[in-house]
Amino acid sequence: MREQLLLENTTTGQLWDVTASVHTASWVTNRTGGPGVFRFTLRANHISFTEGDRVTFFLDGQRQFFGWVFTKVKDEDAVIQVTCYDRLRYLTAKASYAFYNRTAAQILTQIAGDFQLALGEVADTGYVIPSLVEQSQSCLDIIQSALRLTYENTGVWYVLYDDGDGLSLADSGKWTSQRYLGTGAGVLSYRYTTGIDDQTYNRVTLGQATGTVGCTREVTAEDPDTQKKWGVLQLYRQVSMECNTAQMRAQAQATLAAHDRRMRTLWVSALGVPGLRAGQRIYMNIPNLGDIHLDQYVTLDRVIHLWEGGQHLMELETLPI
User: What's the rounded mean pLDDT across residues 219-228?
Assistant: First the structure.
């Protein structure tokens, strides 16, 4: 495995290969909620780089990360800790938008244009959102709201990520790694958690303002059987005034179907798989977890790559199985 880290001065275009000076590096991606983060440490007395400079990291000639320097911390031994982000960092800016009859892909395209951000491969998300009105929210949250509405109405979750060339959307169900992980096949250790404390709901209520002060129309989907076992675990959410009652019922039923269950999650330490990132699916085989024998594709919610001393390791967290 050959690593290469390049720094590029955005003003002069000067390029440095700092691979030999790097001590450690890490790359973190999340399926939702934040940009890709690349951190590294190096001793670089002979190199002058600054915030805003470009960073590209390769493994065996394949680009893993492309982004920009945001923070530098130098200690008394002249070791510099550098934090870099990909394009999603620019979407943490707050803004107000009102979208009507637009798809999530169209919403992403408009916001990217407003912030002068390049686009990569953007999947056609299909579902036309009747309305999405957001005031003083981060652009990332606005786009994630559009993706959530798409999921609730189609059952398809699209992942927003930076592919190195631009902001991209991928159908998580089709975004599959060709690699395999399992006991004796890359998995070093794991933690398996089951519970109903997070993301489990057996009553879903959607509320809609009617236009009359103090009045709200509500639609509820619930499961009396699991309520007898667990008590009432309610999710309440407001929907736009443009949604009709049939659409509200469909959203409530789809949300209930996704969350009316005990959640199983897995945290795995493993040998590194180049290019693997949150939102992708990977086949995993870990028998005797407890109540299940895991032998299936899982979707990754968080992926942490670690490089140190020529070794590449990962930590992975799955979506509920």
Answer: 96
